[in-house]
Amino acid sequence: MWGFKMxxxxxxxxxxxxxxxxxxLACLGSGGSDGNTAPNEGxxxxxxxxxxxxxxxxxxxSLDSDxxxxxDSEEEALGSDPNLADSDxxxWDDGxxxxxxxxxxxxxxxxxxxxxxxxxxxxxxxxxxxRPGDIVNQFELTDQYGDTVxxxxxxxxxxxxxxxxxx
Amino acid sequence: MAEAPxxxxxxxxxxxxxxxxxxxxxxxxxxxxxxxxDLVEWADSLGLSHPVVADPGMATTFSFVEGNSVGLPxxxxxxxxxxxxxxxxxxxxxxxxxxxP
Lengths: 167, 101
Prior knowledge:
The complex is a heterodimer.
Chain A: H1 2-30, H2 44-52, H3 72-78, H4 94-99, E1 140-142, E2 148-150, E3 158-164
Antiparallel strand pairs in A: 1-2
Chain B: H1 4-14, E1 19-25, H2 36-46, E2 52-54, H3 59-63, E3 74-78, E4 84-88, H4 93-97
Parallel strand pairs in B: 1-2
Antiparallel strand pairs in B: 3-4
């Protein structure tokens, strides 16, 4: 009897240890018994979900399905295609367009081939005329690369317009 | 245009401080609206790195001048934010440098 009791106690002890280990593993996966642990404190699985599945809207936790530098949620807000790197087919990836202050959903609006930066105030200028003292009216003319140059794209710079002819 | 190299030099000198030149070509040698090839030839032959645009009939150039005639090259200086500062036959480096953003 004594021997059996001792054996039983031993078995019970080993079960308790195994149960404790299993509970610990569960805690690692669930982020704690109350589920309210912050992601960085929630262990491997919480971090994995945040990084690879959950679209949290921030750079560290957002999915970019097409690898164009914009998260899927950002693309949805912009109206561009989260599964297509160049939504408007103009040769510029959506992320490049946003960085360059152009619209990734409009084919004729993209960074300049000539490399000239576009001001983020481009849509804030309201022209009033073409005389000194006026706020200059917008114009659109084609450049040497075939791009459409919009004067207000250079809203953040001093601009010298030069009228000339070949002759 | 003999002044083109000087204007390009002005652009390169002040580009980093927020300055850009836009050359508007109204006519080619045949007195026609310039093609893209004409613009490329103009920019390449003069070594221009700033925008060179076609201005058919010089409509945009004329919009900045009074009357029906204009001396070429014509120049219009616009401040950052869009205010037109000067519209004159020739503007020098002093006007450019004193109006940088």
